[in-house]
């Protein structure tokens, strides 16, 4: 990775982590839709996602970290792909993730956040974006 790319990636990470959970959820909902956000967060109800958007409820820490990871992924993919392609990539089988769909990995992370697994999904998104 070039120095410029590494700096852009670092800035992206810092920008996303500086956002509040409600801001993260609003941006994600706008980018991929409330149902996809619910899947990423491992919740059944989109009503809960709406409460997060409004700031009425704060997601538990592992979910918040997962939602921030998902937003990083979306920001990596948005310059090259539209909403439909991003949602399809999130829900499709991925050989870089042992044939799991990124949304499945993210949903597991929402219960038990593991930085290495989050990095794997981010790397899969970068690989897709760079092809």
Offer a few descriptive terms.
mainly alpha, 131 residues, 8 helices
Plain-language structure description:
The chain has 131 residues and is mainly α. Helix content is 73%, strand content 0%. It has one domain (3-129). It contains eight helices and no strands. The protein starts with a helix and ends with a helix. The model has no long low-confidence stretch (mean pLDDT 93). It is globular, with a radius of gyration of 14 Å. It has helices at 3-18, 21-32, 34-41, 46-54, 61-77, 83-91, 102-111, 115-129.
Q: Helices, strands, pairings?
A:
Layout: H1 3-18, H2 21-32, H3 34-41, H4 46-54, H5 61-77, H6 83-91, H7 102-111, H8 115-129
What is this structure, in a nutshell?
The protein is mainly alpha-helical.
Sheet of most strands: none
The shape, in one word, is globular
The overall number of domains is 1
**Strand-residue proportion:** under 5%
Q: What integer value in Å does the Rg equal?
A: 14 Å
User: Which spans of ≥5 residues are poorly predicted at pLDDT below 50?
Assistant: none
Q: What percent of residues adopt helix (DSSP H or I)?
A: over 70%
Give the end-to-end Cα distance, rounded to a whole number of Å.
Answer: 15 Å
Total DSSP helices: 8
How many E-type strands?
A: 0
């Amino acid at each position: 990775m070039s120095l410029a790319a590494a700096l852009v990636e670092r800035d992206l990470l810092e920008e996303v982590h500086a956002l509040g959970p409600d801001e993260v959820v609003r941006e994600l909902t706008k980018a991929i839709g409330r149902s996809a956000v619910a899947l990423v967060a491992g919740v059944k109800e989109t009503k809960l996602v709406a409460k997060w958007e409004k700031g009425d409820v704060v997601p538990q820490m592992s979910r918040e970290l997962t939602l921030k990871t998902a937003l990083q992924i979306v920001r990596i993919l948005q310059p090259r792909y539209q909403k439909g392609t991003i949602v399809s990539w999130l829900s499709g089988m991925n050989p870089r993730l042992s044939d799991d769909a990124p949304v499945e990995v993210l949903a597991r992370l929402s219960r038990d956040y593991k930085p290495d697994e989050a990095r794997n999904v981010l790397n899969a998104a970068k690989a897709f974006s760079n092809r």
